[in-house]
Amino acid sequence: xLTLTGEKxxxxxxxxxxxxxxxxxxxxxxxxxxSATQTPYSRFLIKQYLENAHQDIYEAKQLRLVMVSNKxxxxxxxxxxxxxxxxxxxxxxxLIAKRKHRHKGYGKEALExxxxxxxxxxxxxxxxxxxxxxxxxxxxLFESLNFEKIGVKRDWTFVNGExxxxxxxxxxxx
Length: 174
Fold this sequence. Notes:
There is one protein chain. With about 170 residues, the chain is an alpha+beta fold. It has a domain at about 10-130: Gcn5-related N-acetyltransferase (GNAT) (Aminopeptidase), CATH 3.40.630. It contains six helices and seven strands, in the order βααααβββαβαββ. A seven-stranded mixed sheet has the order 1-2-3-4-5-7-6. Helix 1 crosses helix 3 (about 45-50). It is globular and about 40 Å long.
């Protein structure tokens, strides 16, 4: 079995055909606070991004994978970011793009696959995640996979006229 294949979905690299999917996600204002986006992205910029998505994680310091259901539906994205091979750590985040795909176990399976990949193939010692304190679904998901809350960044993001706290989670190799 491939490392990035589960029972409900598989994870794959970005492809040029993902242009419309990425364009839709990056320009959805309702999720801008997750990625700290403040302005829309053009198709041209996203096309350029996809053309450079082949870079190795050791070069780019990040890896974005597409979640695809066994029914061949594009579900969402899962990212490894701020890859630091010297200190053996990497950040992780995910997004289930449409509500109809949420609460079906896709996020949990994708997170498990990427955690295993990072520990086994990238040889990291720890993964970390930054989660808004009001994102109850993500908090529940990460805690269910033994990510430990290690701190709160108070008033960390300013969204819709108010400050929000952000929680820092870590998971160490077992």
